[in-house]
Amino acid sequence: MSDLTNLSVTEAVDAFAKGEATAEAMVRASLARIDAHDGKVNSVIRLDRDAAIEAAAAQDKARAAGAKPGPLSGVPMMNKDMYYRAGKVSTCGSKIRKDFRPTVTATVLQKLDAAGAIDMGTLNMAEFAQNPTGHNGHFGDCHNPWDLAYCTGGSSSGSGAGVAARFFAAALGSDTGGSIRLPATICGVTGIKGTMTRVSRAGVMPLSFSMDNVGPLTRTARDAARIMTVISGKDPLDPTSAPEEVPDYEAALTGDIRGLSIAVPKEWFFDGADDVVVKGFEAALGVLKARGAKVDYVSCPSLHAVGTYVTVVSRVEAAAIHAQWMREHPGDYAIHLSGRLYAGYAIPGHYYVETLSRRGPLLRQFCKEAFAGHDIVATPTLRTRVPTLAETDIDASPDNWARHMVVSANTRPFNYLGIPTVSVPCGFDDRGLPMGLQLSARPFAEGRALQVADAYQRDTDWHARVPAL
């Protein structure tokens, strides 16, 4: 096979199962591409080179002896540096945890291991996952593979950039306000956050108790479906994880979306949107219409309250998690991060309680507004063109704050509402940077969002394009 780094997750598994490519060859191809190009992209924090080659060779030996491949066998993966693996340093992108070695392994990593994925190490990220652009002053900023001057989106910056650059087939990110979907759209890959509580968070550094989500960044919706089927489900180590049965998400990807109804909210998502983004979004809707879907523009006034409450929840919960470190090591935080945390301490407790008490009613109201008679909500993932690293560096200039925060304006509402949301690439803007289509479904209807995402990718090739580097 000519270039093993171009294989998607499902293609890599098939190639391994058929004997067309060995796991070791795929890992070595990934390592060679990282060696050649990550000096520019800066997506990697820790590269476990020897361990990955050893694990791959063991899989090849087992396969030769007749072992049945798993759903992710042979697939090179790296994950955001906040997923704990016992005995391995997990920095969480921070100075405070630069030498932290957990004694536990995250449930999702155990599930990936059992499915045959080969863990090659950990990835750059925004400090403590609290930045929508991916800047990191401790480990250096991650750079967009499509143009190194531009941001990657955050906080799963290394995950988005590394998948886009074909360093590995897939990566785990986390999503509290858009941190999977933003690097997915900005780097031109696919990303999904499931329903809140769908995937265990045991062994994962928290940011917000009630809004953190675990999920993959991949090249295709089919890859995302494969990984979500592996990692989802109830976990006794995470009492908040949902007991709902996990379907085979991949089985829902039939390409048939005839008769499905898509709602486009009139409020919020197009405020101050760039024309090129709106045109790209409308073109994406045209692809779905051609496949038989119906599209309606609907009014969702609940979004104005949602947009306010989501900030309160994330600020207060993050401030609570970091309270001791903020007392003991305030100088070890980046300026923008300590500023966000101090703001959390200034929010009155009754405001926080109000945001939690309104969450259920607002979810019901939004579902009534958007999903009454509709299967999917579609929006642009990012309402503006991709900004540069300089334009969104708020440590360098507080004047960049507004541009910095608008990056996550279209993703944050779905974290507060807790509903499953997928982002897929839907074109390039006038500067050659990717744009994204965001597809949301009712709670625990990840399969429906993935079904529409996959149908879109059957008629487009944005997800198959590779940055020149």
From TrEMBL:
Family annotation (Gene3D superfamilies): Amidase signature (AS) domain
Residues in Amidase domain copies: 26-449
An example molecular function term from Gene Ontology annotations: catalytic activity
Transmembrane segments: none
A Pfam family assignment: Amidase
This protein's name: Amidase
Organism: Neoroseomonas soli
